[in-house]
Structures are given as C-alpha cells and as structure tokens.
Design goal:
The complex is a heterodimer of chains A (114) and B (109). Chain A is built from no helices and eleven strands. Chain A is mainly beta. In chain A, the strands form two sheets. In chain A, strands 2, 4, 5, 6, 9, 10 and 11 form a seven-stranded mixed beta sheet that branches. In chain A, strands 1-3-8-7 form a four-stranded antiparallel beta sheet, with no helix packed on it. In chain A, a hairpin with an 8-residue loop joins strand 9 and strand 10. The radius of gyration of chain A is 13 Å and the shape is globular. Chain B has no helices and eleven strands. Chain B starts with a strand and ends with a strand. In chain B, strand 4 and strand 5 form a beta hairpin. In chain B, the strands form two sheets. In chain B, strands 2, 4, 5, 9, 10 and 11 form a six-stranded mixed beta sheet that branches. A five-stranded antiparallel beta sheet of chain B has the order 1-3-8-7-6, with no helix packed on it. Helix content of chain B is 0%, strand content 54%. Chain B is globular. Classes of the chains: A mainly beta (114), B mainly beta (109). The interface between A and B is medium-sized, with 26 and 22 residues.
Chain lengths: 114, 109
C-alpha cells in the first residue's frame, strides 16, 4: 500500500505566525498535492508539483507557498497565518500512468489559527 | 472549470440495504475517482474509473462518460460503510482533481 505521511497531525497557530506543514511519500510518485477541507466544502487544491524543485498553483493558492525539495517531500507554508486558514489539510501523491492515476492521501493535518 | 455534483447529500440505511450514490460532472473529459472518508477523517481511494464498470468487494463503480455521470453502488451495506463518499474528476487541462461535496452515508444495525 502506498504511503503518504504528514506532520504534524494537528497544530495551533497564532494569527500572523508562520506555519509549515510537511509531507513525505514513499510511493515513488511524481505528482504531489496539497488540498484543504472545510466543513461544508469538498476538498480544494492549493498547490501541486510534478517534479522536484518545481511547484504550481492550484485553485486557491493565495496565502500559501509550497516547496518540493525532493521527489519524496512536499511542504506547505503559511507565511502569515490567518483565521480563514483554519481547516484540515491533506497531502496526496499520484502517478500519471495511462491506466491509473489514483490519489493516495495522508492522514491530514488539523490546523487551528487563533 | 470543472463542476462536480453529488447526490444525495446524505443517506440513511439499515444494515443489509443497497444504495446508489450519484456523481454528475460538467465535462466529458474525465478521470473520475471515488474516495471514502472515514468518520475520523482518513481519505481512502476506492476507484479510479474513467469509463465503464469496476468492482471491488461490495462496491461497484460505473462511469458513463458521454452522459457526464458516474455512480457508486454499495450492496448489502454494513455499519462499517458509514462515512462520507466523494467523487472527483479531472479534465485534460487540469492538473488536480475537482471534488464534489460528498454523500454522507449512515448505516444502522
């Protein structure tokens, strides 16, 4: 079974502070993603990456940065955390083969900004 | 962008009953996937099914791409099936999946 590990599992941050969420995958997948989930919403794509040292904006990138220093690691950075960024954050990885591009998710990080 | 609509929003079942969850999407170019979210939050991939029918255990995924719809059939439901089911699609121009709002399933003994 593919493995995606997120840390921390939960975090409380202060408004204006810097937050870094980390993700590590052992699937040898090229693609990695950061999604956020809010009550009443599905998952929304923040940033993604398809190769090390490169990141791309997703659908809701404002207020977030991403970093992909290696194929295995993908971080999400909130430089100035705000109340509206309270949510559960999921990292995922996938392959992009012709027959299969299933997404494998980490356990999620519950972020509370106070 | 891609739109994904799921129905019903919630579903209550008695153990042993069957259920069908619907997913409608706005584009004919899809990479439809189904996910299950445990009550504790963990997201698990169920199916990658761009077209046709796939089975795993008591679950069946059917995607009719040219009609822009998919369905997930749960047969002989069990209490452990309780949770939220999401469908998600990606068209040829998008890099990430667009998710529906989910169907919350509750199965009682």
């Amino acid at each position: 079974e593919a493995a995606v590990t997120q840390s921390p599992r939960s975090k409380v941050a202060v408004t204006g502070g810097k937050v870094t969420l980390s993700c590590h995958q052992t699937n040898n997948h090229d693609y990695m993603y950061w999604y956020r989930q809010d009550t009443g919403h599905g998952l929304r794509l923040i940033h993604y990456s398809y190769v090390a040292d490169s990141t791309e904006k997703g659908d809701i990138p404002d207020g977030y940065k991403a970093s992909r220093p290696s194929q295995e690691n993908f971080s999400l950075i909130l430089e100035l955390a705000s109340l509206s960024q309270t949510a559960v954050y999921f990292c995922a990885s996938s392959d992009r083969g012709i027959s299969n591009e299933r997404l494998f998710f980490g356990h999620g990080t519950k972020l509370s900004v106070l | 962008g891609q739109q994904v609509q799921q129905s019903p929003a919630s579903l209550v079942l008695q153990e042993g009953e069957n259920a069908e969850l619907q997913c409608n999407f706005s584009s004919t170019a899809t990479r439809l996937q189904w996910f299950y979210q445990h009550p504790g939050g963990r997201l698990v991939s169920l199916f990658y099914n761009p077209s046709g029918t796939k089975h795993t255990g008591r679950l069946t995924s059917t995607t009719v791409t040219n009609e822009r719809r998919g369905s997930l059939h749960i047969s002989s439901s069990q209490t452990t099936d309780s949770g939220t089911y999401f469908c998600a699609t990606r068209n040829n121009y998008a890099q990430g999946l667009t998710f529906g709002l989910g169907t919350r399933v509750s199965v009682f003994p």
